[in-house]
Amino acid sequence: MRIALAQTDPRLADVEANLAGIERTVAAALDAGADLAVFPELALTGYRLRDLVPQVALRLDRAGPVRDRLAALSERLPFVVGLVEESADHRFYNAAAWFEDGRLVHVHRKVYLPTYGMFDEAMDFARGRRLAAFDTRFGRAGILICEDLWHPTATTVLALDGAVLVVGIAASPLRGQGVGSADPSHLSGRQLAEVLARFHTVPMVYVNRSGYEEGLAFGGGSFAIGAMGETLAEAPLLEEALVVATVDPDRTRAARAAYPLVRDERPGLLARELRRIARGEGLEADEEDGR
């Protein structure tokens, strides 16, 4: 399986320009022999939207010009793209959509919205309430968005739900060092992905956006990690790039034969203990999220 890491630099709130860029990138990924393309978080809209969120939001539960163009594009090549989704009750989500064979296969709504440092996503978006793997032509997959990846239990849920591929997309700015150098958060995220891939014996693809927006420099540095924690491909920092990673299912099989950690996990035990913890004082909000 050849996965194109589409490290793009979207224009803020310019859906038409970004969609045209996605179409060009899909064509380039096809030329490169890719089976799947993965675009960054909010690749269709840009990141620092604030009051522009309703203007760029898509209803994915019904036909519409942008949704229909995305679906038609997936007849050429399956892809994952970050966008703003509007629900039927007019909540707005930082979401990722997997399109394949002319149809929408799955939508993941970002579960963990960062509200620290430079981030305040909970001002603009509703929180997603579900982590689930889903079936694709490549087998079961799972999607996480940026901050979701920093919570290891999210990957655990997807692995236990049968995912043989985890796709992570991000709009992560450089923080902590000068422009052009690998910042601490990027290095930590890379190390975390390697650990998660190895201990869940699942390949992980991480695609981060590049470029500059509203005073932020977005890091790029996308990568793919194999089921043994090995690096399969990586993209440069800051600049736009299209890099193809090859994921070999035989390597996943070998990893799970050598380290049957997913097989030996005990979800019933975890669920019981998490329910016990969630019943503790001060965790009412977590119980509400689990409704």
Structure at a glance:
30% of the residues lie in helices and 25% in strands.
Question: How does this structure look, described?
Answer:
- The protein has about 290 residues and is α/β, with parallel strands linked by helices.
- It folds into two domains: about 260 residues, Carbon-nitrogen hydrolase (Nitrilase/N-carbamoyl-D-aminoacid amidohydrolase); about 30 residues, no CATH class.
- Helices cover about 30% and strands about 25% of the residues.
- The chain has nine helices and 14 strands.
- The strands form three sheets. Strands 5-4-3-2-1-14 form a six-stranded mixed sheet. Strands 6-7-8-9-12-13 form a six-stranded mixed sheet, covered by helices on one side.
- The mean pLDDT is about 95.
